[in-house]
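Hello again,

I reread your note about wanting to compare the complex against the isolated chains. To keep things tidy I'm splitting this into two emails, and this first one only covers the full assembly. Below are the input lines as submitted, including protein chains and any nucleic acid or small-molecule components. They are followed by the predicted structure of everything together. The single-chain runs will come separately.
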Amino acid sequence: MTAIVSLQNVTKRYTRGKQTVEVLQRIDLSIAQGDFVALMGPSGSGKTTLLNLIGGLDQPSTGEVVVAGERIDKLSGAKLAKWRARHIGFVFQFYNLMPMLTAQRNVELPLLLTSLSASQRRKNAETALAVVGLGERGKHKPSELSGGQAQRVAIARALVADPTLLVCDEPTGDLDRATADEILHLLQTLNREHGKTIVMVTHDPKAAEYASHQLHLDKGQLVGTTTTA
Amino acid sequence: MKFFPLLWATLWRKKMRTIFTLLAIVVAFLLFGMLQGVNSAFNRTIDLANVNRLVVISKIALTESLPYSYTQQIEAVPGVSGVSYASWFGGYFQDAKNQIFSFPVDPKRHFDMFPELKIAPDQLEAFERTRSGAVVGASLAKRFGWKIGDHIPLHSEIWTRKADGQSDWTFDIVGIFTDTSDTGQESQLFFQHEYFDEARAFGRGKVGWYTVRISDPGQAAQIGAAIDKLFANSQDETKAQSEKEFQMSFMKQIGDINYIVTRILIAVFVALLFATGSTMMQSVRERIPELAVLKTLGFSDTRVLVLVLGESVLLCVLSAGIGLGLAALIFPGLKDMLGVVHLPTDVVIGGIAAAIGLALVTGLPPALRARSLNIVDALAGR
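Full-complex prediction:
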């Protein structure tokens, strides 16, 4: 199957004051199109850093990052922003919705960067909200939604521009077990029924079980791969 | 336009803070509109000054009178095609707050000198032959409900009557004049100099100033110098100047309006700059994670900068629009004082330009900060 994500010999170092920390060390990684991958590991293992590199939020210190056919480690800030808008949908642990906008307007945000008309943007946002089961909550603001509903809105926002890849950073970290399972089930459905490639960071083994593959990181290195039964 | 709902929603994220900031800017621009409007009205009076006319006053001060006998001598100066005279009466109607711009004049000379003042020929004739007659501007007549045939009392703050030592004068309105080019002129009242001169208790044989019409505006300086030379070393030396110079010096009697207005507005805008700038900085500081999310979604650094600047422009222009709108509503109330019915367009344009300037100055530092946000650090709360 075609690799949608390919990392070769990727290293990431951070300098804090006089100290340089190597967060990722010589990572080689390939994720196939249509896969659902869980990045696992203890705190400080580098999983969020790896996710940021895949999502084009950060640049590696060395190595090559190719996502959706583009070598993104060489892209400038403006080009990388444009690339993210086209290819990546982000889901965060704390939803990161705009509190002053309704669910509908939040979902429409990525579409503001497209040439779609206002009515088309509205229609697409309604469709995305319907896909996550919140078709009736479009007029509600984030403060009027439960955690699970807010995360569904965030997933709808991530989906609305039909990105190549969904990047999720601890998407269930702020939710109770039952709600977390609903969200994970939704992600699994998006992967299985809509063919969305998903890379998800989690430290929760139960959450990781929803993925097709689990990549284990420790101290900045990939230490193993597990395929979910 | 598609970003407007986002800008609008962001603007009202903290409603009370936005309302207070908005009110501060509204008040500043209301003040701007009123003060600049008044300033503009004064400048307009100066701009409307006629280049064909000179004004001759006492060399000592505007308040010093000149002999009436200068009339013929000035008329005889080459290049002079007409002379009129007037004096400051300092009158008010019924109450001191009802100040009337009232002047004793020679009816024929005056209306001949100021053709922009339109009056019906029969009313001018009546003015010439009625010793106690007075003509009033249309807006002044409207203000007090005066009409032809009315008998009105005016109290002078300067002139007493020889007959009874009182300062109360009565006039019969015999005409109403208009001035379509400058309705401010319609707030004046003219009455017969001859009647005034005979009845006043002091200062007889004198006039306040002369207005001189010249044939060639290019010769204004030479003709003015010739008039001054005529009375040099006399007891009543003169100072001839163009009507524009006279208007400007007259305005300076009130105060340097432009200077005062400019200084007040600078103080107001500097205060506003700090208040609005602080609000914008605080607003952006609170929204760092949200701005980082926008960048995550694909909003470029430049687009985020423009959004923050746009928010600042929206706030300032909206507030300025309200402030200037209120000024425009209030301004017609000053018609009797300034003669300008509407807030001048140049003041509105200047106000909007000032609002945009204010927005850019106050919005740029937080916008630059938003532009330089590192997504990973911002999302991590660093």
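For quick reference: The first strand of chain B starts at residue 53 and ends at 58.

B.
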